[in-house]
Amino acid sequence: MTTNFFTQLEQHLTSSDVVLQAHKADDKIVVIFRIIPKISDPSTKAIPPLKFEGTAECLDNDFFENASQPFELIHNYTNELSEWAKGVEKAKKQSEMAKAKQNELNKLTSGADKKLTKANQALTIKDYTNALKYCSQALKIAPDYKKAIDLNEKAKQESGLFSQPEIFESPK
């Protein structure tokens, strides 16, 4: 006798494990099917087992037809939970990376801010050489830091050391 019991069962084993328990009660067979999803979510423990009762012939004919809808529901549910869990994990990693990047940026700008404070003090007393030196140091620490770029430009303009004539000056 050839059946396709395990072939049909195999389709459901991709996302779940199945525990099958069968016993005879009077003139019927009672089959209890426990589906155990392969994800670690506590809510899946609330999934009750499937219970089928019938004669051997009835179970032979209708078992997978009757079991397929609950299997499909559980399969879809576990897939959604799995995708959701992956999304949460991805968001968590991205958040951690963003926090790490922000912390690194804060460290860089903090170091640059110390140099810029000294540069501002030097500009206040018109010590342009030191102001430019501290701005340069701040830019080495944080090259894209707008505050450092702006103060460096201000120091250059006030010092007059780096002033360049207009390329397109009108003739006099």
Task: Walk me through this protein's architecture.
This protein has about 170 residues and is an alpha+beta fold. It has four helices and three strands. It has helices at about 5-10, 55-125, 130-140, 145-160; strands spanning about 15-25, 30-35, 50-55. It has a three-stranded antiparallel β-sheet with strand order 1-2-3, with helices on one face. Strand 1 and strand 2 form a beta hairpin. Helix 1 (about 5-10) runs parallel beside helix 2 and helix 2 (about 55-125) runs antiparallel to helix 3 (about 130-140). The longest helix is centred in the middle third of the chain and has 69 residues, at about 55-125. The mean pLDDT is about 80.
Share of residues in strands:
5-15%
Instruction: Work out the number of β strands.
Output: 3
Q: H/E element string?
A: HEEEHHH
What's the pLDDT, averaged over the residues?
80
For this structure, the quaternary state is single chain
Unreliable spans are none
Query: Strand count, sense and closure of the main sheet?
Result: 3 strands, antiparallel
Q: Could you write a compact summary of the structure shown?
A:
The protein is 61% helix and 15% strand.
Key attributes of the depicted protein:
3 strands, three-stranded antiparallel beta sheet, alpha+beta
